[in-house]
Write a structure and sequence with these properties.
alpha+beta; 5-stranded antiparallel β-sheet
């Protein structure tokens, strides 16, 4: 076995309730006919402000009150209120007990995000073939902002798909995470400390071999083992990692070869 990824986050930690209720700013939002609006809410500034609001809320699992939201977005309280309420009306933001949260409309749009459409097209058939041949859950994933993002996946009938690890340390303990961190991180970037610098160096030195793969013998999740191999763009940079995951004490003898074959097949389709 070879061992070896702004809006400032300002969260109001007070529990929601009557004491936390925030009234809208005393100055009512002005109609366009009453005079010029603040720069943050005109022209391109409206779009920038709206995205600042949504990015701040995306970082706040417990939602944000109006004051914290305005501080996070570096907006006047009146502007933050106006933008938040407009987004509530559109379903992009929801308001619960005077706190704002990301809305269902943005969640639905976000689910349709394709991190790399070209890679997805190249990976669909090899990943499906890998799942059929190995009888395991097969996936092609990338590392984005220290999180594993699914490009495409196929699970045999009756098999559940394992959720993503919650943080970079947990991600780096998986076979997929090890492959992706070892192939995409720069030399001057600190790697997760769940493996020693020597282990990371050894993995980096070996991962470019055409037969290279990483095996997880239940080290990330009890009862789950998996095999992962890197996929390469024609330029020689990492495109992602193909992984076969199954519930077993140890992977079948031929699983490494099947995963490496799938990775090479995807790489060939990218040329």
């Amino acid at each position: 076995m070879v061992r070896p990824s702004t809006v400032a986050k300002v969260i109001d930690d007070r529990p929601p309730g009557p004491a936390d209720a925030e009234s809208p700013p005393a100055t009512a939002p002005r109609d366009a006919s009453t005079g010029p609006q603040p720069a943050a809410c005109t022209g391109r500034g409206v779009l920038e402000g709206a995205f600042a609001v949504m990015e701040a809320l995306a970082d706040a699992d417990g939602g944000l009150g109006l004051t914290a939201l305005a501080d996070s977005c570096v907006l006047a309280k009146t502007s933050a209120y106006r933008l938040a309420e407009q987004l509530v009306a559109l379903g992009a933001v929801q308001r619960v007990n005077h706190r704002y949260y990301i809305g269902a409309r943005i969640g639905r749009i976000g689910q349709r995000w394709q991190p790399d459409p070209v890679l997805r097209q190249a990976g669909q058939v090899p990943v499906h073939t890998l799942a059929v041949q190995s009888r395991a859950t097969a996936s092609l994933r990338i590392l984005h902002e220290d999180r594993l993002r699914v490009i495409c996946t196929t699970a045999p009938h009756g098999h559940a798909y394992l959720s993503n690890p919650a943080d970079c340390e947990s991600t780096a303990r998986t076979a997929t995470g090890r492959v992706l961190y070892a192939t995409t991180a720069r030399n001057d970037v600190a790697l997760p400390g769940c493996w020693t610098p020597r282990e990371w160096r050894q993995l980096r030195e070996s991962i470019r071999d055409v037969h290279a793969s990483v095996v997880d013998h239940q080290e990330a999740f009890p009862g789950i083992c998996c095999v992962s191999a890197p996929v390469w763009w024609p330029s020689g940079t990492n495109a992602g990692a193909v992984t076969a995951l199954l519930q077993a004490a140890k992977p079948p003898p031929n699983l490494r070869d099947l995963v490496v074959c799938a990775a090479r097949s995807i790489g060939a389709r990218l040329r």
